[in-house]
Amino acid sequence: MPPGRMDGARTRKDLGGWDYLSRISCKDPFVICPNRQVIHGQFAIDTKNKDVKYACADLMRCNQRQMRYKLKKAYFNGVAADKVRTTSPLSTMTDEQWMQLVNMWSTPKHKDKCVNNKVIRGKVRFQQKTGSRSYIAHMHAVDTMEALVAEPGVEGKESKTPTEAVAQVLSSSKFLHNIGLVPATKKSCNGGDPTRVAELEAELESEKQNSLAVRAQLDALKKVEESEEARAKELEKINDLQKEADETNALLRRLFSLNK
């Protein structure tokens, strides 16, 4: 058995037959019955399907990598070469299999590979199987667009152009963003006909412009009202001063008349 291949965590090449999958522990996400017809778990699928077999093998391959990683972290990393245990820490693994793993981890080639992988992982921006930039989803969209462009025209119509294929496959609300013509922070409505979306955006922009114009008019009227109020207050003060002056003049006339 090659280094690192342990019972219960084999790849598809080591299966030797589909019967092996019926012996997976019940702790795994799903268990295949001996009749190979039903997967008991959250769903039932065809166990003879090629994609199902590949998915199961991929699941075990991932479990194998995780087990190797945990064993290396617990019993090898940070441990002196003369203090690394020579017996298997697991009851499901023989001492010979354990030493094969230890010998593989100790080779300079494997150590350099681990260092390089650590550097590469630090540069990863989008994971291959998660998020909106999933590699699988991205390649599926590319294949769909290429198929649309390659389709011959129907009833005299020309085949789709690359731009039309992209517009059909990608969401219309994300079209400009996906081809890099708008920033990622730009927000737009979800789905819908591209023409209708453009019309709604034009109407929205027109409403914004009208709103700004109305706002400017209201601000101007408010300033006029404020200036008229200020002028009215000034006139009121002038009238009050005029009355006071008239009263003072009348009082002075009386005083002059009494002195005479």
Task: Describe the 3D structure.
Residues 197-258 form a coiled coil. Keywords: Coiled coil. This protein is mostly helical and 260 residues long. Among the domains are: 12-122, no CATH class; 128-192, no CATH class. Helix content is 57%, strand content 2%. The chain has a two-stranded antiparallel sheet with strand order 1-2. The longest helix is centred in the C-terminal third of the chain and has 66 residues, at 194-259. The chain is elongated. The termini are far apart.
What's the structural blueprint in terms of helices and strands?
Blueprint: E1 31-32, E2 39-40, H1 50-75, H2 95-106, H3 108-122, H4 135-150, H5 162-169, H6 175-178, H7 194-259
Antiparallel strand pairs: 1-2
Pfam family, one: Transposase_24
InterPro entries: Probable_transposase_24 (IPR004252)
Coiled coil: 197-258
Number of strands: 2
The biggest beta sheet reads: 2 strands, antiparallel
**Mean of pLDDT:** 74
Query: In one word, what is the shape?
Result: elongated
Number of separate helices? 7
Percentage of residues assigned to helices: 55-70%
Residue runs with pLDDT of under 50 for 5 or more positions? 1-40
Oligomer: single chain
Q: What is the topology, as strand order, of the major beta sheet?
A: 1-2
| Portion in beta strands | under 5%
List the secondary-structure elements in sequence, H or E. Answer: EEHHHHHHH
Radius of gyration of CA atoms, rounded to a whole number: 41 Å
- Measured between the Cα atoms of the first and last residue, the distance is 141 Å
- Counting helices, strands and paired strands, the structural category is mainly alpha
InterPro entries: Probable_transposase_24
Coiled coil: 197-258
Keywords: Coiled coil
Pfam family, one: Transposase_24
